[in-house]
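Check my protein:
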Amino acid sequence: MIRRLFLAAGVAALVAGPLAAQANERDLRELTRAEIETAKKEIVAANMNLTEQESQAFWPLFDQYQTARRANTDRRVALIERYAASYTAMTDAAADSLAKDWIAIEKDRAELAGEWYPKFRKVLPAAKAARFMQIENKLQVLIDYQLAANIPLVPAP
């Protein structure tokens, strides 16, 4: 399952690069999103040890949370696409704008987690709610690592 997530994240990184101009970019991005979400759900299910009652309350909330996260993910993809488009002719203004937007996206991602943890806490014991947030974070770190490995640094002046 972890390999599938790495593969899907690797494909996402490729899509966000120079191939983004291709006509099938949106279809490929959606396919990759579906693969990542399926793999993620399998990993969460395998690691949460939910009771039947907890499952009934958790999974609808999980789906709502993933939907809420999509806007942030879409912003990240758009940022990567902007970066790819300006990479060969990066100006100070473009670099500054990209950096500020990245900071705002990361801040919003953390705020979203803070907003949703209490919702998970209402349907799960604290240890399981915290475990979910930890799994969520670990999976995001894996995706971020794949992206970072495939996105070059801003060109030096």
Q: What stands out?
A: The CA atoms of residues 83 and 118 lie 35 Å apart. The chain is about 85% helix and 0% strand.
